Amino acid sequence: MFPLFSLLSRRSMQLVDLGHPICMSMLMRIRTCFQGVAVLVALSLASFHAHAGDVLTFEQALRLSQARSQQLVAQNHATAAARDMAVSAAQQPDPVLKLGINNLPINGPDRFSVTRDFMTMRSVGLMQEFTRQDKRLARSMRFEREAQASEASRAQALAQLQRDTAIAWLDLYYQERMLALVKAQRDEIRLQVEATEVAYRGGRGSQTDVLAARSALAQVDDRIDLATREVSTVQTALRRWTGRAADTPLGDAPDTSHVPLHLSDLESTLTSHPDITFMVRQEEMAQADADLARANKQADWGVELMLSQRGPGYSKMASVNVSVPLQWDQKSRQDRDLAARLATVEQMRAQREEATREHLAQVTVMLQTWQSSRDRLRRYDSALIPLAAERTQAALTAYRGGSGTLASVLEARRMALDTQMDRLRLDMDTARIWAQLNYLIPVEHDAAIPVLDH
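and the corresponding C-alpha cells:
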C-alpha cells in the first residue's frame, strides 16, 4: 500500500502545479492523513508479526475440518459395524434348546397327570442347524464388502470435506483482498473529493468536478458494502468447517501453480477417485449378494436330539430328527433370486463405467479451464494491469496539462480498479478449480492440529 501513498502525494502536488487553490492547511491535512495511515499500517504490520502464530493457515483449516467432522466418525462406525457382522455371519447358527410335555391327558381319571399315562412324556431336546462352510463364508464376505464400501464412502466424504474447506478458505482469502483493494481506492478518491471542493470554493474548479468526485466516492462506498457482505458470507461458510477459527486472520495462500494430474494419464489416475472406488465396492457387494444367492440354492440340514421321560413304570425314550427344507420350485424361487442378484451386478458395472466417463470429461474440462485461467492471469500481469495504470497516468497528465477532465481521470481510475478486481476474481476462480483438482483424491492429515477452535 505504500506506493499508493506516494501516488497520492504526487497527485496532491500535481493539483498545486495546476494552479488549484489548495491552501497550505489543506496540503498539511493530506500529509497528516498520509502519516496517520502510515502509522496505522506500521502498527498493523507489527501486530501481525507479533501474532504470526495466531493465523489460520490453509493446511490448518484442512486439519481442523477433518478433526471436527462427524460424518467421518459416522463412516468409521459403519465400517466397524460391518466388520463385526462379517465375523458373526461366519459362525454356525446357535443351537436351540427345546423343553416340552407330550401327550398330556386333559380329561378322565388321569387328566393333567404327567406320570400315570404311559404315553405322557416330559421331553428335553437340542436342535442344531448346520450351515455349510461355503454359505457362511459367502455371508461373511457380503459384510466384508459392505465394510469396504463404508471405507470408500468415508473417502468420498473426506474428499468432499477437503474440497469444501479449501474453497471456503480461498474464497475468504481473496474476498478480503478485494475489500482491501476497494478501501485503498476509497482513500484516494476521498482526498480527490477534498481537493476538488477546495478548488471549487476558491473559484478555480467547477461544480461538475465536485459532483463527479462525490459520485465516484459514493460508488466506491457501495462497492465496499458489497465486498464487506461477501467477506461475511464466505467467512460464515468457512466457519461451517473450522468453527470459530475462521474468525482469526488467514495465513498465506497455498501454491496453486501445480496440480497432481496430467491429461496423459488421467484415465488411470481416476481409478483412485473416491466416487469410482465407491462404485467398485458397490459392484463387489452386489457380486457378494449373487454368490450368497447361489449358495442358497443348496439347503442346509438340521439335526435334533430329544430325550423323553415317562412315568416310573415306563421306559425312557430318545428321538433323533433330521430336517431339510424342500426346494420344490427352484426355477421360480432360488433361480429367480440369483438372476436378480446377477442383474444388479451388471447394473452396478454399467453405472460405474458411465460414471468413469463422466468424471473423465469433467476433470479434463477442469484441467483445461485451470490452464487457460493461468494463461489469462499472466496476461493480466503483463498487459492489462500495466495498461490500466498507464491509462490512469495519461489521464492525470492530460488533466494536469489542461487538456483533460477530472471525469476522465476518475473513469481511468475506475477502470484500473475494475481491472485489478477482475484479476482477483479470476485468481479466486482459478484457485477454486485448483482446490477441486488437488483434492479430487483425499489426503489424510495428521490428527494433531493446533488449538484454534476456542
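(Above: one complete record from the training split.) The CA atoms of residues 287 and 311 lie 57 Å apart.
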